[in-house]
């Protein structure tokens, strides 16, 4: 696969080409850097000593050689590559993406050091923009003016024909993983999504959509009522299709509305966070928060299908991305074996968002969660293994307001220490696990001091308590071996704090 990035100076061609190269595991080439290396001069020196026309000749000759190359590469072109018709003809035959950025934003970003066309006056950028805009717009465009680097990478990759399908072999829940599938949301679907997801991917959605606030706020009866009213007012029947496109809050919310409207209608999920793809969208649990208790109203009911597009996870911020990795790490601890080894061996490829590694991680996480859920769909026993890290994690989340996935990471850490105190896990195994958690969990989270009584208060109301002081706590003996211990939550908290 060859990808060429075109656009004005400062649009991000060089930066994003390097990032896309790591994501797709293909080499990158920066045409400016290549020309400087071959000439052993900076761009500025070439302009000064040989003139712009000589530079343009170098650009054209390099482009001609690049398009002849059979291998995959992502190319950062120089901003002026579109000036010559021959170059444009060659680029039209390739996968060429125009990075559209407003001139005002370009002026903020661009440095004039090694950009001779701007060196005497940065405001030349406006003139050059006006002169070239029609040439750039001959190519597939992505407006990335307001997107950060990772969001821009995700949107660019939605535009290139990167194909990677992995099937999930399960008769229990219909799930499939397909890079770029977000573009194929069924045209007749009613879409429920969140503001952030709509701002990034809304061009792929149908016009029948409801956009909800970001985050946990949507899991509230007020929004459920709004959704029911919308469906009734639009004469939606049980046979129509509801589609939740978003993180776990959106799929929980959509699953609950889809399970209760007219006693249940067709609904599918396009989970767009990593945590949503490997956890929240899998296994049929849905629901909302009520009064101050999390997930206390809901059903266990599978969507018709879950379509996972790994490319969407690339636009997550670092914390949200790590949350998904932490939940997946939890699943690998429960499963042990090759999945735990895979996670350990590929930790940094995952953190660098390498798409092949990420896709395999998603597949294995989904398969391992399914393996547990299909043995205990109604959550009467085995499924509680999945609460590893959640008993104290939920309490920590409620007390501190820290995001769910990070709170689970904190809870995992504390419950592992409890397991050590009770001599369920040996030090060497613990050290291995903690060293991975230390990489995943921002140290700012691990060192948070939390009020003991606040934890006690929350735990006394935890729905898993079934009205007593006893918590059924999943504890890790070693990766692949979880035991359930019934303990008094006072003892749990007092042992740790
Ligand atoms: N049903 C289950 O089995 C299950 C399991 C685990 C968690 N959950 C629930 O999932 C929720 C947490 O889900 P989450 O971690 O996905 O959080 P989330 O749904 O709040 O999404 C996090 C934020 O990221 C934004 N976002 C979503 N996709 C994005 C993307 N591709 N790029 C950029 N931003 C994006 C969202 O708009 C939101 O602002 C909690 O309510 C938790 O209870 C449910
Ligand atoms: N999406 C983005 N958001 C904010 N800043 C960006 C973004 N992409 C690139 N930048 C910054 O803009 C500047 C120019 O980026 P660069 O990749 O050199 O652009 P180009 O190669 O198109 O001239 C760099 O400082 C880079 O860090
Ligand atoms: O727009 C242009 O004509 C140019 C853009 C520069 O590359 P960047 O777009 O990477 O700054 C570089 O090729 C040269 O200064 C000319
Ligand atoms: Mg550049």
From TrEMBL:
So which cofactors does this thing need?
A: Mg(2+); NAD(+)
Please provide the record's keywords in A-Z order: Amino-acid biosynthesis, Aromatic amino acid biosynthesis, ATP-binding, Cytoplasm, Kinase, Lyase, Magnesium, Metal-binding, NAD, Nucleotide-binding, Transferase
Pathway listed: Metabolic intermediate biosynthesis; chorismate biosynthesis; chorismate from D-erythrose 4-phosphate and phosphoenolpyruvate: step 5/7
PANTHER family cross-referenced by the UniProt entry: 3-DEHYDROQUINATE SYNTHASE, 3-DEHYDROQUINATE SYNTHASE, CHLOROPLASTIC
Q: Which GO terms describe its cellular component?
A: cytoplasm
Pfam family of this protein, just one? DHQS_C
Its GO biological process annotations read: amino acid biosynthetic process; aromatic amino acid family biosynthetic process; chorismate biosynthetic process
Q: How does it assemble?
A: Monomer.
Q: Which residue range or ranges hold the 3-dehydroquinate synthase C-terminal domain? A: 324-464
Note the SUPFAM superfamilies from the entry.
Answer: Dehydroquinate synthase-like, P-loop containing nucleoside triphosphate hydrolases
What species is given as this protein's source?
Defluviitoga tunisiensis
The EC class name is: transferase
This chain belongs to the protein called Shikimate kinase
Q: Where are the transmembrane segments?
A: none
Give me the comment on cofactor binding: Binds 1 Mg(2+) ion per subunit.
Detail which positions bind substrate.
32, 56, 79, 132
Family (UniProt): Belongs to the shikimate kinase family.
Cross-referenced CDD domains: DHQS, SK
EC number, UniProt record: 2.7.1.71
Task: State where ATP binds.
Answer: 10-15, 115
Q: What is its main location?
A: cytoplasm
List ligand-binding residues for Mg(2+): 14
- Which reaction(s) are listed as its catalytic activity? shikimate + ATP = 3-phosphoshikimate + ADP + H(+)
Q: Which compartments does it reside in?
A: Cytoplasm
């Amino acid at each position: 696969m060859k990808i060429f990035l075109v656009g004005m100076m400062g649009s991000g061609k060089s930066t994003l080409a390097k990032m896309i190269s790591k994501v797709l595991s293909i080499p990158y080439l920066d045409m400016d850097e290549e020309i400087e290396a071959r000439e052993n001069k900076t761009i500025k020196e070439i302009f000064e000593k040989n003139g712009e026309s000589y530079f343009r000749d170098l650009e054209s000759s390099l482009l001609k050689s690049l398009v002849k190359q059979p291998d995959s590469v992502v190319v950062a072109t120089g901003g002026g590559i579109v000036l010559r018709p021959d170059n444009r003809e060659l680029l039209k035959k390739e996968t060429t993406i125009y990075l559209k950025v407003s001139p005002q934003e370009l002026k903020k970003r661009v440095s004039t050091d090694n950009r001779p066309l701007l060196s005497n006056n940065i405001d030349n950028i406006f003139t050059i923009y006006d002169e070239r805009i029609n040439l750039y717009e001959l190519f597939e465009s992505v407006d990335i003016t307001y997107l950060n680097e990772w969001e821009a990478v995700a949107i660019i990759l939605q535009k290139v024909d990167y194909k990677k399908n992995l099937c999930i072999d399960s008769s229990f829940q219909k799930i499939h993983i397909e890079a770029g599938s977000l573009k194929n949301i069924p045209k007749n679907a009613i879409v429920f999504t969140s503001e952030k997801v709509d701002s990034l991917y809304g061009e792929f959605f149908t016009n029948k959509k409801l956009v909800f606030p970001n985050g946990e706020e949507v899991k509230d009866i007020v929004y459920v009522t709004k959704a029911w009213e919308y469906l009734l007012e639009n004469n939606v029947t049980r046979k129509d299709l509801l589609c939740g496109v978003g993180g776990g809050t959106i799929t929980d919310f959509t699953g609950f509305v889809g399970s209760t409207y007219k006693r249940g209608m067709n609904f599918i999920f396009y989970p767009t966070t990593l945590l949503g793809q490997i956890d929240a969208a899998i296994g049929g649990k849905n629901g909302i928060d009520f009064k101050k208790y999390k997930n206390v109203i809901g059903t266990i009911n599978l969507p018709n299908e879950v379509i996972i597009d790994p490319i969407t996870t690339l636009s997550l911020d670092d914390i949200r991305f790590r949350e998904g990795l932490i939940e997946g790490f939890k699943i690998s601890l429960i499963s042990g074996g090759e999945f735990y080894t895979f996670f350990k061996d590929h930790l940094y490829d995952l953190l660098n968002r390498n798409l092949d590694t990420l896709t395999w991680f998603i597949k294995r996480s989904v398969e391992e969660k399914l393996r547990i859920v299909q043995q205990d769909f109604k959550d009467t026993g085995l499924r509680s293994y999945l609460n590893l890290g959640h008993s104290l994690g939920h309490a920590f989340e409620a007390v501190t307001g820290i995001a769910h996935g990070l709170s689970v990471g904190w809870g995992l850490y504390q419950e592992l220490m409890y397991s050590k105190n009770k001599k369920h896990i040996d030090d060497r195994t613990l050290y291995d696990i903690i060293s991975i958690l230390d990489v995943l969990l921002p140290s700012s989270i691990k060192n948070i001091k939390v009020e003991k009584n606040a934890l006690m208060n929350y735990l006394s109301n935890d729905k898993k308590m079934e009205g007593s002081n006893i918590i059924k706590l999943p504890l890790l003996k070693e990766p692949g071996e979880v035991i359930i211990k019934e303990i008094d939550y006072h003892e749990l908290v007092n042992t740790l704090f």
